[in-house]
Protein: NADH-quinone oxidoreductase subunit F
Organism: Stutzerimonas kirkiae
Amino acid sequence: MSRTLSSIGPINRIARAEESHPLTWRLRDDGQPVWLDEYQAKNGYAAARKALTELAQAEIVQQVKDAGLKGRGGAGFPTGVKWGLMPQDESLNIRYLLCNADEMEPNTWKDRLLMEQLPHLLVEGMLISARALKAYRGYIFLRGEYVDAARNLNRAIDEARAAGLLGRNILGSGFDFELFVHTGAGRYICGEETALINSLEGRRANPRAKPPFPAAVGVWGKPTCVNNVETLCNVPAIVAHGVDWYKSLAREGSDDQGTKLMGFSGKVNNPGIWELPFGISARELFEDYAGGMRDGYRLKAWQPGGAGTGFLLPEHLDAQMYAAGIGKVGTRMGTGLALAVDDSINMVSLLRNMEEFFARESCGWCTPCRDGLPWGLKILRALERKQGTREDIDTLLGLVGFLGPGKTFCAHAPGAVEPLGSAIKYFRAEFEAGVSQAVLPSVEPA
């Protein structure tokens, strides 16, 4: 496994500790998976024992809510609030917990690290969460290309079941929970929770209309909660160490609590993933952890968290890495894995490449996304060949507005056009350079 995926480097080996790195302190320096015996030797499943034998279900929900844990998949919705939406009616005794492990956001691989190297952390997180939600069955909806993650998760589930940590009457608590890995067929839209539910049921992966929300009508019409891998992996530490400890991990000024898997890729000296406190500055992430740009390259622009976030400039590196901190400079935190764009890259070509992905991955359910993304891609291809027209840039900006938040059935199209709008904002000259000289107005000599 590469250094990028294993996050093994001098900084990481020195910094990881249980008190400050609840997600990654158990990682092995050789990048191999941590199996059951080693995981339990490192306090693994201690939080699950506490949750199942000492805490009431409502207490677990309240702890997660008070800790301020938010979704780590990109949307950032408060996890405890989401859990609280599950019905309390005891007659609804069939409930499901789904783990969204369909990690297909370009430039994002944080969940892969956890599933491949710490599979029992996810199993324990789902066990505790299922107890809180009164869910009797869980599914890990996994990106089909994550073959190593599927193998490691299935082994971890088998180990946990053999040890009495899954199945019936777990730890003598009277709680039953079964967990399964379900590999998807490779569609980006499955990252949207209701499209994921449709796919799990064997249907076409289209988003569903909301309401009803999955908490009321989810998998096979039953109450369902969908959480991201990294989100669920935070739960054991909260239960084990408490709310105050968890909230103390973030930097001063951050509205988000705890730590986050963050990273940098591109032509940087030390590409990788690190578990860092919310509120750290993007400059510290870029310079101290990623090591800045390689010799011969200059930072031209960067994205803070995946291909669906807007581009920022080098002068924005002083922004703090948390949702509102990145929001202050005009885009979203997203997944927290940043991309460095160097000065050798043409922004039109980069956007054309991105929009090819987004247009291809549209489910086609709503007209703005189905027709708007290919239209924008066609224009970008023309500009890249320097065959564009004077109206093309205004048309692209019009599409950014027409496909923005609230204009489409789900968030796919808004995420696709956010980088496009920001690229035109900061690098309009590069788009104007794609206008064919044949359509430029002639200039009469003075």
Notes: Residues 1-14 have pLDDT under 50 and may be disordered. The two ends are 65 Å apart (CA to CA). Residues 412-432 form the longest helix (21 residues). The CA atoms of residues 48 and 295 lie 48 Å apart.
